[in-house]
Amino acid sequence: METYGLNFKKSLGQNFLTDVNILKKIVNAAELDENDDVIEIGPGIGALTEQIAKKAHSVLALELDDRLIPVLAETLEPYDNIQVIKQDVLKADLKQLLSKYFDGQHRVKVVANLPYYITSPIIIHLLETGIPFDSLVVMMQKEVAERLSAQPGTKAYGSLTVRVQYQMHVKVAFTVSKTVFVPQPKVDSAIVVLSPKEVLTLPKDEQLFFKVVKGCFQHRRKTIWNNLQSFLGKQVDKEKLHQLLLGLDVSPKTRAEKLSIDKFIQLTNKIIDSKI
Ligand code: SAM
Predict the structure, then answer these.
(1) Ligand 1 pocket, CB under 6 A
(2) pLDDT per position as a tens digit, 163-212
(3) 185-204 burial code (b ≥16 CB/10 A, e <16)
(4) Which domain holds residue 54?
(5) Total structural domains in the chain?
């Protein structure tokens, strides 16, 4: 960065990793080999990219900060299996990029030290592409990792947990101290491995399911009864709603954090069936 006269852009979540041991641990968690094509989000100056390229068949790295493109051209010059493009990942048509840059003959994985200010939107964006990723191995704030991997009945369990665990198995591989980043962020980090569930239980309407989950968690301290009433609107038939919840064996006084993903799916289906 000094050579190029560049400063770190906090607004782009630029906390770079320099410890080779940690970089290698991330790559190991992704279990990369020559059968893998990897998308990296935010290569920075290419420290992680280099370690990925040593193991994988090829890497496509998407970097938003155009000041870093010439830096990456220099640091990654020895590798002929890396392509770097200037691209905002949230605006990327990843399916199109995949068919342009990958040969379709390899597994597709994502490996990244994510920009922390948009961790959740990136993960949702990746899940919404419909690309059958073999895995997503991503570094994020420890607190977000806890939310992604949370179990029902815990404080960290929320709409993000349900949204992600609906499709993916989530495992926290290891945590990383804030001291290994340059510049040092305020919080520790964790590497999370997300892998697709082999069998998905699908709600009758997926979009409604996402909305119901958000609605139930709208006010965390309110009961499911209160949140559902606000979500469904004032005109909702209260007796019908009461019966609907009891039919699911859910007490109206309970809070959303107690409900499993399957319960949210059943709840969505009942809302549809009862035309409430
Ligand atoms: N991979 C490097 C490392 O591990 O040291 C840098 C990781 S740093 C936490 C996040 C990187 O994401 C930065 O290089 C930043 O410029 C880039 N970035 C931020 N927002 C982005 C976006 N919307 N699309 C693509 N890259 C982005």
Answers:
(1) 12-17, 41-44, 47-48, 62-65, 88-90, 113, 115, 118
(2) 999 999 999 999 999 999 999 999 999 999 999 999 889 999 999 999 99
(3) beebbbbbbbeeeeeeeebe
(4) 2-196
(5) 2
